[in-house]
Amino acid sequence: DADVTQTPRNRITKTGKRIMLECSQTKGHDRMYWYRQDPGLGLRLIYYSFDVKDINKGEISDGYSVSRQAQAKFSLSLESAIPNQTALYFCATLGQGGELFFGEGSRLTVL
Amino acid sequence: TQLLEQSPQFLSIQEGENLTVYCNSSSVFSSLQWYRQEPGEGPVLLVTVVTGGEVKKLKRLTFQFGDARKDSSLHITAAQPGDTGLYLCAGPTPGTYKYIFGTGTRLKVLA
Predict the structure, then answer these.
(1) Mutation site, A38, A43, A44, interface B, largest B CB count within 10 A
(2) How confident is the model at residue B2 (pLDDT cuts 50, 70, 90)?
């Protein structure tokens, strides 16, 4: 089983709908991250969390919110999805040595 | 503002050729990392460089951290089709655990 698991892997939704992407990890890491990937733009940081009481905005947090329900779970929500939020979303954890461990990604399409 | 700029954005070369990918910033980083991403997967760490002027080798890949710790390069010798992928540099924003990524270099090695 993957150490960092994202659900759903693929989702198609309509403009205005609320969407939640979930991430769970079995690596025991405190620090977790949500990134967005668009073609030609690398990965951009949406939110990151150091523990359940510590949530920080990244480079592109507008239109997104997050919840750190437990050390192992970090969810990303789009309260009212819009087409330009169509992208590939990645969750990651940060290991002790500074390595980021990524999930397999969640592909979101907003029509 | 993208703190890490990569060049070139795209690179298509013949098998056996050499290539260099660059990652540049106007900010000093405590460390820089290189990741490789294949389609449908999350990025995977190749190397971390932490000391100015450091050179690390991973088989045919050579990584260098600039003396001023503002830039890094990835050199591939005798590229092979298996090297095809998206190469990303990344690092913690100075003084934080906010990991940001470069714009990415998409490499295609033709047999």
Answers:
(1) A43
(2) low
More confident residue, A21 or A97: A21
Q: B52-62: per-residue pLDDT in tens? A: 999 999 999 99
What are the backbone angles phi and psi of residue B23, rounded to the nearest 5°?
A: -135, 120
Task: Report in angstroms the alpha-carbon separations of A27 from A4, A72, B92, B101.
Answer: 8, 8, 20, 22
Q: How far is B68 from chain A (nearest CA, A)?
A: 20
Q: b or e along A24-54 (b: 16 or more beta carbons within 10 Å of the residue's beta carbon)? A: bbeeebebbbbbbbeeeebbbbbbbbeeeee
Residue B21 sits at the chain A interface (C-beta within 8 Å):
no
- For A100, the closest of B9, B45, B102 (CB atoms) is B45
Cα–Cα distance between B96 and B28 in angstroms, integer? Answer: 12
Q: For residue B91, give the nearest of B105, B76, B72 by alpha carbon.
A: B72
Is the confidence at residue B23, as pLDDT, over 90?
Answer: yes
As a whole number, mean pLDDT of residues B92-110 equals 92
Tell me which chain B residues have a C-beta less than 8 angstroms from the C-beta of A50. Answer: 97
A102 chain-B contacts, CB cut-off 8 A: 41-44
Rounded to the nearest 5 percent, the helix, strand and coil shares of chain B are 5, 50, 45
